[in-house]
Amino acid sequence: MDDYGQRFNEAVAAQLRAERAAKGMTIDQLVAVSGISKSQVLRLVHGKRDIDMRDIASLTQALGLDPVTLISRAQARMAD
């Protein structure tokens, strides 16, 4: 059975990687700006940990995005 939550988490992680790459931001820069530990950021952007709204808020702020934009793009990624 397909787990929507897992697929959504993976889509958000993939979108975070894409947004970071589009901004030309390194993981270390994302860590510094977001205030989230490097190990945690790595787990989040690789889909190894469920992402919560606080993490989404911190990461999108660091990337100069609105959280709704990230989630909308992740949902579109799931539809593809």
From TrEMBL:
Residues 16-70 form the HTH cro/C1-type domain. Gene3D superfamilies: lambda repressor-like DNA-binding domains. Pfam families: HTH_31 (PF13560). One of its GO terms (molecular function) is DNA binding. InterPro entries: Cro/C1-type_HTH (IPR001387), Lambda_DNA-bd_dom_sf (IPR010982). Coiled coil: none annotated. This is XRE family transcriptional regulator. It comes from Cryobacterium cryoconiti.
